[in-house]
Specification:
alpha/beta, five-stranded mixed beta sheet, globular, 38% helix, binds glutamine, disordered N terminus
Length: 274
């Protein structure tokens, strides 16, 4: 539907009505240009893409000192949302194992959380095209490097991981019944340092970022072995093909126009901390 205005006076009448609906921008526009056609889009509610994430997972999603969220995923979904025509992209922080339930109950529209596309998850949500290739690795204390030259040597030892992640599942296979699972990865890292476990099983890019960027990684090292091949996807509610198509199209545009590469360079080509 379009609202056609036939005189300047009538444009102002529309404009005042719109102001009462809270759309002050449209008022300014109508008043300045007088007679014009107001498209459905200009009178529609501003559309917000509600995105769930778990924001303690640098460099993919984490909080700045002021509490605002940032990281590779956060910048990527903001850019995709813009491409897809959303007026706003709201990134909401929640526990990792609460993300899929939140999408199933429509509290959020989509998830970007360094989330691996797995068969199990794909029964409950639909995933976009993969946007990042990842895999698991294990962090140990430097002082144990000789004791654990490879992941096999860690079998049966106490391991730490984040609840509901592929890291936790793999840790459980290595050391059945001996996995301490935490809400966030930083808690798992701290437990390793406190010698509450012998290794942390986690996505490699996050492990590498922790080792190269965080002072808290002092005394920690990585076993040089990649355990799995995983791909991250952006999730939508099962059957929400309309949104999925928009996200895939946005992702493709950003890959084609160089924006994806820019964001990638920014977050994965960092100088080591020292
Ligand atoms: N990629 C892992 C998974 O999907 C970890 C994700 C995360 O902790 N944010 O399970």
């Amino acid at each position: 539907m379009g609202l056609e205005c036939v005189s300047r006076g009538r444009a102002l009448v529309f404009a005042m009505k719109l102001k009462f609906n809270g759309l002050f921008k449209t008022l300014a526009c109508a008043a300045a240009f007088g007679c014009m056609s107001l498209s459905a889009a200009s009178v529609a509610e501003a559309e917000t893409l509600r995105v769930g994430t778990e924001a303690t997972y640098a460099p993919f999603e984490f909080a700045n000192a002021d509490g605002s969220l940032t990281g590779f995923d956060v910048e990527l979904i903001r850019a995709i949302g813009k491409e897809a025509g959303y007026d706003d992209v709201e990134v909401i922080n929640m526990p990792f194992d609460g993300l899929i339930p939140a999408i199933m109950t429509s509290q959020i529209d989509t998830i970007i959380a360094a989330m691996t596309i797995t068969e199990e998850r794909a029964k409950r949500v639909d995933f976009s095209e993969p946007y990042y290739t990842s895999g698991l690795s294990v962090l140990i204390l430097e002082e144990n490097a000789a004791k654990y030259p490879n992941v096999n040597a860690l079998k049966g030892q106490a391991l730490c991981a984040q609840i509901g992640t592929t890291g936790a599942m793999t840790a459980e296979k290595l050391s059945p019944g001996k996995v301490k699972a935490f809400n966030t990865e930083p808690e798992a890292f701290m437990e390793l340092k406190a010698k509450g476990c012998e290794g942390v099983v986690n996505d490699r890019p996050i492990n590498l970022y922790f080792l190269s960027q965080s002072d808290a990684s002092e005394g920690v090292t990585e076993i040089n072995e990649i355990l799995t091949a995983e791909k991250y996807g952006i999730a939508v509610r099962k059957g929400n093909t309309e949104l999925l198509d928009k996200l895939n199209a946005g992702l493709k545009t950003l890959r084609d126009n160089g924006t994806y590469d820019q964001i990638y360079q920014k977050w994965f080509k960092l100088a080591p901390k020292d």
